[in-house]
Amino acid sequence: MIIALWILNALLALVFIAAGIMKIAKSKPALVEGGMGWAEDFADPTIKLVGIAELVGGIGLILPLLTNIAPILTPIAATALAVVMVGATVVHVRRKENASRTVVLTVLSAASAVLGFLVVL
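^ that's the sequence the OP posted. Answer follows.
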């Protein structure tokens, strides 16, 4: 089970860290221009906060398990990312946009949380 957790968390961490850095580094107009229409509905600090949450969550999927310092934080990070992705899914559904990517990330984050709790506890 630990191997499955590592594989899943590595993939999720790559996605969330990349998405978080992009939201932190790019301006709101650049994000909208790049195809993230949802950014129009939010203030710039809110977009940056979401980016920070994704970045910290992505790091939280790997670092506690890797260092074996407070490994319980790994499934907690996965749970928090699942909550963030539920919010993202709601935003996309309200905007009548394709929410399939956010649903997949929600399910994978929830699976990581369950697997993480099974491994850690």
